[in-house]
Design goal:
Layout: E1 2-7, H1 12-23, E2 28-35, H2 39-49, E3 53-56, H3 59-69, E4 75-77, H4 79-88, E5 94-97, H5 105-113, E6 117-120, H6 124-128, H7 130-140, E7 144-146, H8 149-158, E8 166-173, H9 190-193, H10 203-211, H11 213-225, E9 233-237, E10 243-249, E11 254-258, H12 264-272, H13 303-314, H14 318-334, H15 342-352, H16 362-379
Parallel strand pairs: 1-2, 1-5, 2-3, 3-4, 5-6, 6-7, 8-9
Antiparallel strand pairs: 8-10, 10-11
Helix pairs in contact: 2-3, 4-5, 10-14, 11-13, 13-14, 13-15, 14-15, 14-16, 15-16
Length: 384
């Protein structure tokens, strides 16, 4: 029985993680849960899984939850200290990180110091502080297991392979809603950008998919997680989304990770690693998947992908700048305060104004995140 904590339990990854626990009650036990403010969602989870500790980040929401739980033995905590309590709880072997935003950085480093196995779904830790996180995990002998489907695919293809045998890591992308669009990007509205052709996702990740910034961020993640330069990472447009990732080896051989698009597959493997468990999830039907297509992305039409490569090459604090500026730019676009093509222009403005810190510590990165957000807000003037 593996005891786990889940940060971000009421989000899509957290809910799917609990699906896995529900399907394998003899394998996994939930000891702690955390979310931001969803009292109703986490209350139902507490009643079903009976954790020892539950955190709602916002104190008012935590107080409401404690009132609803009454005399329940479950301990309710809140704020940054509450998140760290969930991340470091005694007896927990693995912590699933699926909480969006920079607020998850403190808990993830706390879990690392407590030598918990880390299963990471959200991009921010490996984008903002990936180099620092991976080097510290290596020093402490702690596992970092990716849940993001593309990076899980790379990880599975690389298992047991020597670094010198790898020529290139390949991430696939559906191409988003504007994959075939040749012109008129300046007229794109939030409503049209939010219509992803394949998946229903939250607004932030859907806009990142439309700009291909999601792949720019994944390039940074892959470079940090697998300790390779950005030039050894490639992005390929693959509309069918059957192949999640590929590895090219120095002898010209390719290994690919294929499967249905269901996040429960990479979540389950991160939880069960190094074993593979049965499940009742749908299997990939190769006979019905149809022809598979692969295209080279156009960096002129999708400059956010180019910026992701540039931030990865620069290293240090630059990925934190990219991430923060992008979050602000996406918020402005969704509020119709800037246009679609202004998203990469605003990000590039902020990156150009940043004084690179080559070997940042955690506090440096958090301060960089704050600076980039303020700078992006200031630099938005005159952009449409």
């Amino acid at each position: 029985m593996k005891n786990i904590s889940i940060l971000g339990s009421t989000g899509s990854i957290g809910i799917r993680t609990l699906d896995i626990v529900r399907s394998h009650p003899r394998e996994f036990c939930v000891k702690a849960l955390a979310a931001c403010r969803n009292v109703e969602g986490i209350y139902d989870q507490v009643r079903e899984f009976l954790p020892e500790v539950v955190c709602l980040y916002e104190p008012q929401a935590a107080a409401e939850l404690a009132k609803r739980l009454g005399r329940s033995p479950v301990k309710v905590v809140s704020g940054d200290d509450g998140l760290k309590t969930v991340a470091t709880l005694s007896g927990v072997r693995q912590v699933v990180f699926a909480m969006v935003g920079a607020r998850g950085l403190g808990p993830i480093f706390a879990a690392l110091k407590a030598r918990k196995s880390l299963a990471i779904a959200n991009k921010e830790p490996l984008v903002i502080a990936g180099g620092l996180l991976v080097s510290e995990a290596r020093r402490l002998g702690v596992e970092i297991l990716p849940i993001d489907s593309e990076h899980s695919g790379l990880w599975q293809c690389l298992e047991g392979r020597k670094a010198e045998s790898v020529k290139k890591l390949i991430l696939t992308s559906s191409g988003g809603p504007f994959r075939a669009k040749k012109s008129g990007f300046g007229k794109i509205t939030p409503a049209s950008a939010l219509k992803h052709p394949k998946w229903k996702m939250g607004p932030k990740i859907t806009i990142d998919s439309a700009t291909l910034m999601n792949k720019g961020l994944e390039v940074i993640e892959a470079a940090n997680l697998f300790d390779v330069p950005a030039d050894k990472v490639e992005v390929v447009i693959h509309p069918e989304a059957v192949v999640h990732a590929m590895v090219e080896f120095v002898d010209g051989t390719y290994l690919a990770n294929l499967g249905v698009t269901d996040m429960r597959l990479p979540i389950q493997y991160a939880l069960s690693y190094p074993r593979r468990l049965d499940n009742d999830l749908p299997a990939l039907d190769l006979y019905r998947s149809g022809p598979l297509h692969f295209h080279k992305p156009d960096l002129r039409r999708f400059p956010c992908l180019r910026l992701g490569f540039e931030a990865s090459r620069a290293g240090g604090s630059m990925p934190a700048v990219l991430n923060a500026a992008n979050e602000v730019a996406v918020e402005l676009f969704l509020a119709e305060r800037i246009g679609f093509t202004a998203i990469p222009r605003l990000i590039e403005r902020v990156m150009e104004r940043h004084c690179l810190i080559r070997r940042p510590g955690l506090e440096d990165l958090l301060e960089t995140d704050r600076w980039a957000r303020m700078e992006a807000d200031q630099q938005k003037e005159g952009l449409r």
